[in-house]
Each structure stands twice: as structure tokens, then as C-alpha cells.
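User: What would this chain look like folded?
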Amino acid sequence: MNNTIHSNLEKEFNTNLKELQKLTFNGLIDEYIKTVGDLINAKDLDNSMFLDEVLEVVPFKDNAELIKAFEKTKKFDIDEEAIKKKLIQDIIPVLEELSQNQTNEKIKAILIGREYYDQEHIISFSTETKGEFGYLQEWSKIYSENEEELFYDVEEEEYSVGQIDLSPISKNYRDFLDLTEENDIYDFILDAPSFGYLAYSYNYKAYMFLNEIFKELEEKIRSEKLFDTPLHIYYCEEGVCISIYIIE
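Assistant: Here's the prediction, encoded as C-alpha cells.
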């Protein structure tokens, strides 16, 4: 089951990375300009409303610093073993705290999500006792071997623990975004349709890390009886959760 989950996550990562490799920084700006033009035509808007925005972003097409930073996002040149080791050290106390704070209700799932809306690299952990995970989202087509649905709607608990920093995984990505913010073109770049390939490449890389981390932590969870099994681990974003690992 967990090998299948990892394989599916890796497939999504590779699909997005393949598309990311085709992109250029200039191409993202061109996409944004085309998107603005299509919007004006579709809505029959006065193009003078958007002309200033377009004129503002065009000069950045030749910005060598931004072009170099974007090209670097295509390279996942990180020390994966060192990052994984540090994350395991950080996550263990969080799991122990969640275990100690259990009530009489059986914990059925651990939910992982961003701690702050504007800092997606900082994650926290909460628990789900109801196990009412809802139905597969139509846009989320990932299945395990027995077609168990891996995406769910859930109601997250308010109580959360930990502030785990995933930024070492996405350093190149974050450096690029920081540079777009410094140049006041962050929102323009996000509006380019293909920007999703960049974002999802790094999202799925983080999900793969978490899968591998819980694989290493499974024996500790079992031997120390931190939680009852089966235990599902999900990464949740705005009520939609993707399966990361299952301890049967």
C-alpha cells in the first residue's frame, strides 16, 4: 500500500517536473500577458485597465537575476538524506506530544498542514478521530492498487502541534519567489497558468519526503504504541487531504 502511495506521489512529481523543465521565465511572463489579453477579450473590458500592469511586467523578461533563479528551481540539488534526518528528529517530539494528548476517542488519522497561510513551508500536526473522510475529489485522480481513494474531504481539528520547517526541501523555489516579491511581480507570476507545474513539483517532492519519513518512523510508532492502528497520515490543504502513509 505505502509503496503504491509513494509511487503515485512520485508519478505526480515527475509529471509536473517534466512540464516545468519545458518552461522559461520569459514564457511565464508571456503566459501572464496572454491571460490578461484573453480576459479582456472574454469580458469585453477596457484594456486601459490592464495596460499599466502589462507594461510593468514586460521589462522583467530580460532580468538576468530572475531568469537564473527560475532556471535553478528546475534543479532539486539538495542533500536529501541530511534533510530527512533533521525532519525525523523534529517530527518525533511532535508525534510523542500528540500521543500523550490523546483522549478516550481513538485517533484514526494524523493531519499535516501549513501552520500559517502565507508560510506553506511551516507545517503542524493535528489528529482526526471521526474518520469521516468524505469522497474523492474529481480533480484528484490518484488510486492505490485496490482503488482505495487517497484524497478526502475532512474537517480538521483546531488543536495542532509543532512547527516543522520544510524550507530546506524547497530552497530554490523559495529563493525564486522571494526575488519576485522583491521586484513586485509575485502576483503576476502566480497568475501565469503554467506556474502550477513549478508549485506542484515542490509540493509533491515534500509529500514524498513525508512518506519516506513515516516509513522510517513506523517501527517506533508500533513498538512504543504511540497510536492505535490502522493509522492514516494525510497532508491537508483547505479541507482536501492527500494520503501520505498508512500504518495498518
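The chain is about 50% helix and 15% strand. If you want, I can go into more detail on any region.
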